[in-house]
Structures are given as structure tokens and as C-alpha cells.
Amino acid sequence: MEMKRVSYRLPKEHGPKVVAIGGGHGLSTMLRGLKHYTENLSAVVTVADDGGGSGMLRQDLGMPPPGDIRNCMEALANTEPLMSELLHYRFTEGSLAGQSFGNLFLAAMNGISPSFDVAVSRMGEVLALTGRVLPVTTADVRLEAEFENGASVIGESKIFYCKKKEDCRIRQVRLLPEHPKALPAALEAIREADMIVLGPGSLYTSIIPNLLVDGIVEAIRDSHALKVYVSNVMTQEGETEGYTVSDHIRAIFEHSAPGLFDLCLTNSSPIPRGVAARYAEEGAELLRCDRDACAALGVEVIDRPVATVKSGYVRHHPGHLARELILLHAERSVRIAGDNFDYRDDTYRVERR
Predict the structure, then answer these.
(1) Of residues 338, 265, 260, 268, the one with CA closest to residue 307
(2) Model-level pTM greater than 0.85?
(3) CATH classification number, 1-46+182-353, choose in 1.10.3470, 3.40.30, 3.40.50, 3.30.70
(4) Fewer CB atoms inside 10 A, N or C side of the chain?
(5) Residue 113, Cβ neighbours under 10 Å: how many?
(6) pLDDT tens-digit profile of 70-84?
(7) Where exactly does CATH 3.40.50 map onto the chain?
């Protein structure tokens, strides 16, 4: 029977409600792509960082670390090129050497706001964000890692070096103080989401810390949204050497709840041998997908071409990753189950027999 094609436009303002949970450059990369498909976008971001410029502001001003939040805001900002360049600018001399203007902007906004989450919201208005950025909590939290040999270290920035020294896997991480309260707006966003995306990003320092905040796991578990974990492409030196995809999933489940998600998006794009060899010299390798072990955990693995090589580094491609996530949502959508979808720009092309 001949296929009948029905097409209708889906403007970005009517796009799916997507909640992306994580931190670091992986989350901001994904957001850069997703903002072209939906305006109903919420980033729930970890605040456990204590290194670099963020750590300095945290120590000096007693504020939550701004770095990961700033990166996400830059990704979602709709500003003039000059403003974008200004946010990225890092001072090179004096006591501000290495500090970014974006961090200082958020610190100043925090100084004139009643709370950190209000400061983030106000800065979002200034930058005309597509969507919103939400700190997972406003509590002053530190990250502690415990290793398989019993050693432990406090401080997100110290985990890399301690793991290299101990030369064994991380057994678990915890927040200090434990069980901080989640930002109510973050819980609300998760409850209202059509799709919840975990990652991509550092397993123990970007993704899992969000799940240790009171209420987050329960909100995800109770949600009827499509839940997807975006796997990293490479293992991470000082954190996940020797890990497989199932090792990542198992660690997330052990820190949250079994079956927190049932879909895992992995990369199928080839990585050049020369690039892989350079990563191997630095203690990292292509993340091996042990599909059967993932299935035993109740997780379906979906391979899609979502990675690229930029300046010799393997990265998720913002556009490709976002497109595959939106396609996945369309294909698995309960509202129009059974249809086949071909997403092009802002139009769903629905094909029915």
C-alpha cells in the first residue's frame, strides 16, 4: 500500500518539555543543539564544583560555584556576538588571572539578589536564554569520593589526582552535607517534563551529584517522561578508566535507583585511529558498549551518529545529538505512538500506512 505522508509544523515554542540533568561541557554542548528544536528547555545543573575560578569565587564570596551554570547559560544565550565574546573572556593578569567575566557577572548578580537561584534567573533574563538554567540545589555542598581500597577524598577537584594515586575504582560518591534539598523549580521541571536526559558528562562529578540531592531521584522515577541516558564516547582519565557502558549505568543506578531510565543513547560515528591512539596515551579509550550487560540492567541501547572530532578531541556534535534526541522522543511519544517520524528543521513529517 502506498505511504500517505502527513506533515505539520511544530514551532519551537510548542516543542517537547526537555529537562537535561548534568554539568560540565557535555551538558552545555547538548544544550546548544537542543535550543534549536524546543524553547521548553530546562537545565538542572550540579553545584559541587570547587576548582578553578568557580572554586575561588566560592571560597571568597561564599556563593555556589558559578562555572557549570555559566557554561549552560552561555549555551542557551541569544546575545550579540560582542556579548558572547565578553562572557567567554578570561583575565590574564593580576589577582583575576584565569577568571572568566561570565563568572564575575553571575557573582555580581548574586550580590544584588536575595538568593543564588534568583541571581541565575535574572542573569538568564539579561542574556535572553532559550529555556532556563536551574541549580539543582542552593545548599553549600562538597563532593566526597570513596575508593575501592577504602581511601577517600573531599573536593570535586581532588578526585582526579586521588584516583590516579590510589589506582583503583571509585566505589561511591556522596555530598557533604548529605541529602541537601532540591530547588523546588528543578523538581517542578522534572515533574512536567516530556523527556528527561541524563548526561553526557563526567560520571561521578557531573551526573551523579545531581542524583544525591533530596527529591531528584524520586521526581525522575515518578515521572512519565521518556528517560534517556546519553553515554560518553570515551572513558575519562582519573574517573572511569576501564569502564564499559554498563559500568556507567550500574554506577548511576547504585547511586539512585534501579531502572531510573531504560534507554541509553550511544555513539556510532567512527573515531579515527590516530585520535584514539592519542587518547590511549593519556589513559582514555573508546567506551565499549556491552549491550548484553546493559540489557541485563533493563536498559535498551540505541546507537546513533552523535560524535565528531574537533581539534583532535572527540566531542558530541551539538546538532547531531539534539536531533537524535528529538527524533527519539518523537518515535517513542505516547501521544502519537505507532507513527514513523522524520524530523527536518521544525517540522514533523508523519508517515502512516
Answers:
(1) 268
(2) yes
(3) 3.40.50
(4) N
(5) 16
(6) 999 999 999 878 888
(7) 1-46+182-353
